[in-house]
Design goal:
Elements lengths: L15 H9 L16 H14 L7 E4 L6 H10 L8 E5 L8 H4 L2 E2 L6 E2 L2 H5 L3 E5 L9 H10 L1 E3 L5 E3 L3 E6 L11 E4 L10 H15 L10 H7 L7 H15 L24 E2 H4 L1 H7 L2 H25 L8 H21 L3 H4 L1 H15 L13 H21 L6 H21 L4 H6 L1 H9 L5 E5 L1 H7 L4 H4 L33 H5 L5 E5 L16 H15 L1 H5 L14 H29 L6 H10 L1 H18 L4 H6 L16 H27 L3 H21 L3
Parallel strand pairs: 1-8, 1-9, 2-5, 5-8
Antiparallel strand pairs: 3-4, 6-7, 10-12, 11-12
Helix pairs in contact: 2-3, 7-9, 12-15, 12-17, 13-27, 15-17, 16-23, 16-25, 23-25, 23-27, 26-29, 27-29, 29-30
């Protein structure tokens, strides 16, 4: 009836058919929004189910079930518009909003803008299709009438006259409806977390579709690294949440329209937010004090930058041994023990005060004033090449440190500092913000690795950011808005709601300064909360773990050289080539052991120990590695740090006897070393259980192995 309606029935009047069309208008579905995207077996099965339902000559009712956000109404539209009835109309009603008497379906009414009475909606629809969403939420009183409609097509109008609906019925539900099972053809839509293989295709399709609607000249590319990272997220909101994620990402970088979407604009809410304590909610005054730009600018540019210059002058012009050069004492006896002790508390905070990047920022700002504009970061999977390069850089530093005896050579120690600073300056001139710190700085790589163990974290509330923020100044930068301050954005180019661990957060509080919505929180949490089974660290980061483990061995090379045939007597003296070969061999021992372990597990139990599980084993040993590094530097910190004043002032002719000094008893140092190693062993045993979830016997064996490694390490680092 509706398909044959004429728009008017005379001057100033509306025909009954037109009134019927106008009544259907608010509920009409014009077309399907998209097809079934993906190449997984789930996508193929779903496409086949849609094809079979569309080709059903009997036009049986269809029940489409699945979780919220799966666009089940679009599946119904695909079936209708792919069937022989594609030229008929299709309407959609929300079952949760229907009246108990079903008046929207069974009673006569009028269409919008019309005074003519229209027949009941089912009669207006004729041979079209009726879609009722959320059939599981319809009023209880209405269920018998709907069941009869599904079973036989019969329905009763308001006058008690029984009629028959010749069209097709579609239903959607989020739960099971047992009464409908024998009456309908069922299609179950799998959730997005089950179809992770399809996520890349969904992302690229959604980005192309939305970018064109936003007026982008060409749709941006979506990198494979981004797809892999998002595949670790479960998407509880399914396709609806994915669409919102794409919309938010495109709007964040709509000003530049990049050729490839950066990972930083895709962020999802962390699932594990339990056992967190918000420091700023507890003491709001801390927030105002800590986010003060004056504090940070005075500290960085007024103090740290010039102290760094003085320290390097001291290293070049002063005595060259640690016993008589206070700057060398500061570098090795103070900085190393303190930064290792700080990791479990404040993570990567040192990078906020790092003088390397302070001078990098000074040069970058100066260059901008002179008209030089650094390029934007290269997008894509930078970690793929940067993480291995970073591990190689740290290995080179460890070899140089041991072969040249940097701990007792002031000028070479200064040269190391200046080389890292040169990298930061060149990186700052080449790329915006702190590209060097995020991807290439060896010290920054170590800091980011051990920051995963910290009990503190800086995060934003994803719900507040997605619902209230439109500028994203916290990582992009921008002018002041509300209580937010003008900033240049996150120096590491990361949105605080996008962070999945502490690796790319230096606690500089730039995001807290820029945020006008108080979304950013400084929280305390359980130790090593970043280390979870579903984490997705860069592949090359495991190389850095092995290099740092090799560094522990290399620092105690004399104890290992006696076991190597034809090894030099010392790594500090003698011909360079034999010393370099021996040092490289010692440094590579953990990597060789890990490779042997990989071959062994692949040969015996490849299904139980895939590559991802092997990497988790390394992360489980991270607390032990931290403890062994700390135990190595404790004799310096507890034995020589207190001699800073004598080491600094004795070369000036001041007698050491009258200067304050302290040095811990060797037995106290040994006790602290043992305590540190036991703490690391305990942390690794707990992480083995959390990350690998092995059987109890396997866990007991791994725990015993960890204890043996801790005992061997304790012997190795003994002063």
């Amino acid at each position: 009836m509706a398909g044959e309606a004429t728009p008017t029935g005379g001057a100033g009047t509306v025909s009954p058919d037109a009134a019927a069309l106008m009544r259907l208008a608010p509920f009409l579905l014009g077309r399907a929004r998209r097809g079934i995207v993906g190449s997984s077996r789930y996508a193929r099965q779903l496409r086949e189910a849609v094809r079979c339902a569309a080709a059903d000559a009997d036009a049986r009712p269809v029940l489409i079930s699945g979780e919220p956000g799966l666009e089940k109404d679009n599946i119904a539209a695909l079936i209708h518009f792919g069937s022989a009835a594609r030229h008929q109309l299709m309407v959609r009603l929300n079952g949760a909003l229907l009246r108990p008497d079903g008046g929207e379906l069974f009673a006569a009414g009028v269409g919008p803008g019309s005074s003519a009475e229209a027949p009941p909606l089912l009669e207006c629809l004729g041979r079209g299709s009726l879609l009722i969403d959320q059939i599981d939420k319809v009023p209880h009183e209405l269920r018998p009438a709907l069941l009869e409609l599904v079973r036989s097509g019969r329905w009763t109008d308001a006058d008690g006259v029984e009629r028959r609906f010749p069209g097709r019925v579609f239903l959607t539900t989020e739960t099971t409806v047992a009464d409908l099972d024998p009456l309908v053809r069922q299609i179950r839509v799998p959730p997005l977390r089950v179809r992770r293989q399809d996520l890349g295709e969904w992302l690229r399709y959604g980005v192309r579709q939305r970018a064109l609607s936003l007026g982008w000249p060409r749709p941006p590319q979506v990198g494979e690294a981004l797809v892999k990272r998002l595949q670790t997220y479960d998407f509880p909101g399914n396709l609806r949440e994915l669409s919102q994620l794409i919309e938010r990402a495109l709007r964040q970088c709509s000003a530049t329209c990049p050729a490839e979407l950066p990972e930083d604009v895709f962020w999802t809410e962390r699932r594990n937010t339990r056992a967190r304590f918000d420091l700023w909610r507890w003491k709001p005054v801390l927030r105002e004090w800590m986010r003060s730009p004056r504090l940070w600018n005075a500290l960085l540019f007024g103090l740290v930058s010039w102290v760094f210059v003085l320290v390097n002058l001291w290293l070049w012009l002063g005595p060259q041994d640690r016993a008589h050069n206070g700057a060398l004492n500061l570098f090795w006896a103070w900085w190393w023990p303190l930064i290792l002790l700080a990791y479990p508390l404040v993570g990567r905070l040192w990078c906020s005060f790092c003088p390397f990047m302070v001078w990098g920022e000074i040069v970058q700002r100066t260059g901008r004033r002179l008209g030089w504009h650094p390029a934007r970061w290269p997008r894509g999977d930078s970690d793929r090449w940067a993480a291995p390069l970073l591990a190689v850089g740290f290995a080179a530093i460890l070899l140089w440190e041991e072969l040249a005896d940097l701990q007792d050579t002031a000028r070479l120690s200064s040269l190391l500092l200046l080389l890292i600073t040169a990298g930061a300056v060149i990186g700052s001139l080449r790329f915006e913000k702190r590209f060097w710190c995020r991807y290439l700085c060896p010290v920054g790589g170590m800091n980011g690795l051990f920051a995963k163990l910290a009990i503190s974290e800086l995060r934003a509330q994803a719900g507040t950011c997605s619902g209230s923020c439109t500028t994203y100044a916290c990582f992009k930068g921008g002018p002041a808005e509300g209580e937010g301050l003008a900033t240049a954005g996150c120096p590491l180019g990361t949105h605080p709601a996008h962070l999945t661990d502490n690796r790319n957060c230096v606690l500089c509080l730039t995001c807290a300064q820029a945020c006008p919505h108080r979304s950013v929180q400084l929280r305390l949490r359980p130790p090593a909360a970043d280390l979870q089974r579903d984490m997705a660290p860069p592949d090359g980061e495991t190389g850095l773990i092995l290099v740092l483990a090799g560094g522990v061995l290399l620092h105690h090379g004399p104890k290992l050289l006696t076991w190597l045939p034809h090894a030099p007597a010392s790594l500090h003296e003698g011909s360079l080539l034999p010393r370099l070969a021996a040092a490289t061999l010692i440094l590579a021992l953990p990597s060789a052991a890990f490779q042997l372990l990989r071959w062994f597990t692949i040969a015996l139990a490849p299904a139980r120990w895939p590559a991802a599980r092997q990497r988790l084993l390394l992360y489980a040993l991270l607390p032990l590695l931290w403890a062994l590094m700390l135990a190595h530097f404790l004799p310096l910190g507890m034995g020589e740090a207190g001699l800073l004043l004598p080491a600094s002032l004795t070369p000036l002719g001041i007698a050491a006897d009258g200067l304050p000094a302290w040095s811990a008893d060797p037995h106290v140092v040994a006790f602290c070393q043992t305590l540190a190693v036991l703490t690391g062993v305990g942390g690794s045993v707990v992480l083995l259980r959390r990350l690998l979830q092995p059987a109890w016997i396997t866990w007991a064996g791994l725990s015993l192995t960890t204890l043996l490694l801790g005992g061997a390490g304790r012997w190795l680092v003994a002063a």
